[in-house]
Hints:
Keywords: Cell membrane, Membrane, Protein transport, Transmembrane, Transmembrane helix, Transport. It is found in: Cell membrane; Membrane. The structure is a single chain. The chain has 219 residues and is an all-alpha fold. The chain is built from 6 helices and no strands. The model has no long low-confidence stretch (mean pLDDT 84).
Amino acid sequence: MSMMLAYSLFNIIADATYGALAAVALWGLYCIVVIWNRVKQKRFRNEAQQDAFMEDVEQMLNAGDFDGVTEYCEGDTRALPQMIDMAVSNRQRGLQQARKFMMDRFQRDVMSDLDYRLSWVGTVIKSAPMIGLFGTVFGMMGAFESLSDPSQDVDPAKLAGDIRVALVTTASGLAIAIPLMIMVANINIKIAKMEDLIGSGLGRFIDAFKAGLAKTGGR
């Protein structure tokens, strides 16, 4: 009776381990997709597209047309237009304050969300092998439990099933963590490129913004 109870408990924990591995895999993949789309939404497709946008902004700033810049950036969900809109809307506070508002918005609306999602992916990468290791340990415990009872014949099928759980859970944990690590490395490269592209655009904007403020007195 105790052996049957132990075997039932083993099956329950084995199923729970598989369920936990599936759950963390889906959550990690979901976070990756969210980050991928977020980066895609917040950056220009390429440098040429951003240069064309910045040329229009620079022309309006050089003419002192701050309202035109606001209208041009309005409704654009990409990071650089949003930051420019924030700076122009707060131009009465001066260049330094406008720049601060602009950078705070970028950090709050873009980078904080990406860091939050990446931290979850990092947690999945660390936890998936640990969950797999738990399944391995428990599977080997089940195998040794089968071998430890001298009063009963060892069922080869049950013993093989215990060892199979031990091996499959470990492999599953690694199969989850390794691809996610590669995806995170790729996403970090995309984020770095996004920051470089936005940084180059901000440099051009600050110079033109400063000139526009000097002409209009911040009006």
